[in-house]
Amino acid sequence: MIYIENTMGGWTNKLVKYPETILLINDDNSTTEFLSIELTGKGFHCEEAKNLEETGAILRNHNIDVVIASAEISGHSSADVLAGIHTTCPDIAVIMMISHKAATASCIKSGAYDCLMKPIVTDELHFSVNRAFERQRLTKQIHEYDRQLDDKLKEKTGRIQASLINTIRALVYALEAKDGYTSGHSQRVADISASIARELSLPQDTVDKIVLAALVHDIGKIGIKESILHKPDGLNKDEQKEIQKHPEIGERIMGPVVEDEEILKYIRYHHGRFDGSGYPDTLSGYQIPLGARILAVADSFEAMTSERPYRKAMSDEEAFAELVRGKGDQFDPEVVEAFLRCKNKP
């Protein structure tokens, strides 16, 4: 162990090696004294415990590197001793001191790293301890390597996902750019959705998910014929059925990119209706995820207040009135009220 030495002049940059620490668990004072003398003589620091209660406290409050424990602590089996140690420190190397060679197999099976026969032979003690420390060093190296690898994978995965999301957003913008009437629609829906979510005091993580879903909620329209998307008058029944597929298509497109099921459900159900008559499924009321209910209000308001080839844009007041009329039928009343509060704030 390494720490920075504190001198009278303040902190220095001198590195000092702190002795590696061994916990001795034994209710036989003479054996503990022998072990302590031998190990401190080799530069180790020793802590001592006589029972499992003391053992737990020391393991929780000290940096222990290796444990040497008696398999015959009063009232406990070797399996109890090992289980007590590994409950607090799962990866620590434990050397068990045994009185009978036959106990070796059961100790190793219960998680011991090595066994030493009593009376302890000095050379065997030092050999076993050195091997245990080497094992601990390798274990720490493996854990550190795994941690670094995990961090790198997370970072790389995050970059890949960010890149894919940016690509999807670019596709959305390209889709909107082909129709001047819907240009910027997704961003405006995202802004409105964020305001509603914050008004409802949702956690920031949920707000972020709703915003992402809003940005790509219409991505499924990539799979719809342009002749339907840009039709200047009303759609017939077949065309309506076709355009109603876009939430499902959007969910499929985003599935490989967004592993979060909540976001995918927000996309799928953003045309759900509170009375159950929406699409693609017949969910109603609070069966529809809250994020999707928020998107429904934001999407509808943005659409109503935007110019379309087949109708003029409504004023904000007219759109508010439509949202109020739709409470309980098309829209979640609580979401509508939250949106109205947002719009009435100075």
Describe it.
It is a single chain. By secondary structure, the protein is of the alpha/beta class. It contains 14 helices and 7 strands. The strands form 2 sheets. Strands 4-3-5-6-7 form a 5-stranded parallel β-sheet, sandwiched between helices. A two-stranded antiparallel sheet has the order 1-2. The chain starts with a strand and ends with a helix. The N terminus is likely disordered.
Descriptive terms for the model:
two-stranded antiparallel sheet; disordered N terminus; 346 residues; 11% strand; single chain; elongated; alpha/beta; five-stranded parallel sheet; 14 helices
Alpha-carbon distance between the termini? 59 Å
Number of helices: 14
Arithmetic mean pLDDT: 85
Strand content: 5-15%
Task: Tell me, briefly, the overall form.
Answer: elongated
* Low-confidence runs of at least 5 consecutive residues: 1-17
Helix percent reads: 40-55%
Order of strands in the sheet with most strands: 4-3-5-6-7
Sequence of secondary-structure elements:
EEEHEHEHEHEHHHHHHHHHH
Structural class: alpha/beta
How can the largest sheet be summarized? Answer: 5 strands, parallel
In short:
This protein is an alpha/beta fold. The protein has helices at 29-41, 52-61, 78-88, 103-109, 122-177, 185-199, 204-215, 226-229, 237-243, 246-254, 261-268, 290-304, 316-325, 333-344, and strands at residues 2-7, 10-17, 21-25, 45-49, 66-70, 93-98, 114-117.
